[in-house]
Amino acid sequence: MADVRYAKAVNMALDDAMAADPAVVLFGEDIAEAGGPFGVTRGLLEKYGDRRVRDTPISEATIVGAAVGAAMSGLKPVVEIMFMDFVTIAMDAMVNQAAKARFMFGGQCSVPLVLRTPHGGGVNAGPQHSQCLEAWFAHIPGLKVVVPSNPSDANRLLKSAIMDPDPVVFVENKAMYSLKGEFDDASETIVIGTAHVARSGDDVTIVSYGAAVNTALQAAETLAPRDISVEVVDLRSIQPWDEATVLASLARTHRLIVLHEAVTAFGVGAEIVARMSDIGFDELDAPIKRVGAPFMPTPFAKSLENQYLPNAKDVIAAVEQVLA
């Protein structure tokens, strides 16, 4: 067991997948010689050559459109969109083509495509390079969406995504690329759609995903000396999502908070709250609270972005409210 950085864990998953299957190819802007804007694909061009690791023009629509065709023709493309904000330019290929192909062709073909893209703030990249748009894709039948919170899960979930016969949106948080975490190279892959109880507790459940899981764990650690026991559920996958694990946790604690970095309005948290209010109503001893970003673009200034992003203090305040 060793500590590995998040970016390196993603790189290792790509390396392992390419070594195991010659059909796996990488497309993206500056991913070959430069190793990607965050260095995630560094070293793969030298190892696998420019037939399998390809720099592309600055055209997200072209990148994803070509990947959809390649996937339907027998390859397993893993494409990188430099910032999640830029998926706006590739929505037709993902939403109208990749997501619909299996259905429209009566199950005669699949689209084994992975779209890797970083989201989130924390690096002062401004409103056009910091958005969390995963809820868009989670709304589309035919797409799977995963958002790992630590290096080990990033590695194992990416391997699962590459092996999946259907298109998967693999979301990374750019502020986490340098995050170190325990990594076991012998660990099995994770079934997409299975959550993980990252911390056990008795008084309140916090459900989260991605970088916000670490915010939840920080809040839980702060509350522990006050004899407030917080359970943290890491969704890992938001489409499909593991409502059975969330419901089981709610049944233990009887209080629920949903935390994510994305804006709260019409988001992933809203879906979880709606479902738990329905199937978990009898377990609730307090109203469910959502914690997320306010409904506004991400500020560029560091001081403003720090206020914009949900933090441990916001989570602690929500816990105090549901326990009151």
What gap, in angstroms, lies between the N and C termini?
A: 41 Å
Question: Roughly what is the average pLDDT, rounded to an integer?
Answer: 96
**DSSP summary, beta strand count:** 14
Shape summary = globular
Instruction: State the fourth-level CATH superfamily of the largest domain.
Output: Thiamin diphosphate (ThDP)-binding fold, Pyr/PP domains
How many individual domains?
A: 2
Query: Gyration radius, to the nearest Å?
Result: 19 Å
Proportion of residues in β-strands:
15-25%
Task: Describe this protein's structure.
- The longest helix is centred in the N-terminal third of the chain and has 15 residues, at 6-20.
- It contains twelve helices and 14 strands.
- 36% of the residues lie in helices and 20% in strands.
- It has two domains: 2-183, Rossmann fold (3-Layer(aba) Sandwich), CATH 3.40.50; 196-323, Rossmann fold.
- α1 (6-20) packs parallel to α7 (151-163), α8 crosses α12 and α9 packs across α10 (268-279).
- It is an alpha/beta fold.
